[in-house]
Amino acid sequence: MPETSRRGLLFGTAAVSAGALLTACTSNEPKKQPAADNQPAAPDDKPGKKVTIGFAGPQADHGWLNAINENAKSRAEKYSEVTLEITEGSNDTAAQIGQVQTLINKKVDVLVILPADGKALTQVGLQAMKAGIPVINLDRIFASPQAYRCWIGGDNYGMGLNAGNYIGEQLKDKKNAKVVELAGLDNLELTKQRSQGFADALKNYPNVKRVARQAADFTVESGQAKMAQLLQAQKQFDALWNHDDDQGVGALRAIQQAGRDDFLMVGGAGAKAAMDAIKADNSVLKATVLYPPTMAASAIDLARALGQGKGVGGMSELEIPASITLYSAVVTKDNVDEYLPTGFS
């Protein structure tokens, strides 16, 4: 899958938990992040002045990307004073630039943009800001901080780190434990960050060694094919980390076809199918590390606050933050019921 159809470069600088948007949460284990359809409105849910938010999102060619669009729509519907001007999702940079320029010409109050390509859309972000329309840059970051008022997105390094620490804790008492990694597209910065976080976490567990790594491309078909290769090459290992729950569907098929159940599997992103399997506890899949699409709902909250000249509930500052990096929680059978509402199809 091309880079423009996936989550792009992430260089968030302020590691603020998603919980900070709604509560002053300082715990290392943030509270659950409800799905859009189940989200309570933010603490300041009394209608304020009318705000028109322009939303330019991605083409929904992946479960996570579809969830981004749905979270944005559902969140906006919770506010009677918010009008959402939404474009047709696109992975074509020229088309999306045109869509954003149309929203600028309509003089929307705030823009929320998940760019098909952050670098390519930087100029149109700058154009909006210069026109006095503040921009919430969602997930794939623009090349210049002048192109947005606030960036909000996921933590790819944190995904790998938390996956590695979870696996390390499960295997810490096992001598010469072996793990394998089913990564995403290697030409994406996000894949490199996830793998680096995973490698750094395993350094804390000298008895655990990564013995194999295979890159897939975030599809069911690639997950099945690449996992079959790993299984053939590695006759024995103790744990698998799969970067993406969509390709994890294929990986699980390959595992079942091979009749293997001698290791534990950790997924990534937080798909509903993965959470259902974790809850059922009838496969090797025991956990998934979140990359929450609820960030789109939070982006709408931030845009509303900007349009109404407000800060963020639970924070003392008069202004919204400049950058928010969401926490990558590990979902297991012990907490899956809390996170199931956030699972995406």
Number of helices: 10
Q: Can you tell me the CATH class of the largest domain?
A: Alpha Beta
> What structural category arises from helix and sheet content?
alpha/beta
- How far apart the termini lie comes to 19 Å
- The poorly predicted ranges are 1-43
What is the assigned CATH homologous superfamily of the largest domain?
Response regulator
What is the typical, i.e. mean, pLDDT? 88
Give me the count of strands.
12
* Strand percent estimate: 15-25%
Large-scale geometry:
elongated
Order of helices and strands: EHEHEHEEHEHEHEHEHEHEEH
| Cα-based radius of gyration, to the nearest Å | 20 Å
GO molecular function, one term: carbohydrate binding
Organism: Streptomyces agglomeratus
Protein name: Sugar ABC transporter substrate-binding protein
Pfam families: Peripla_BP_4
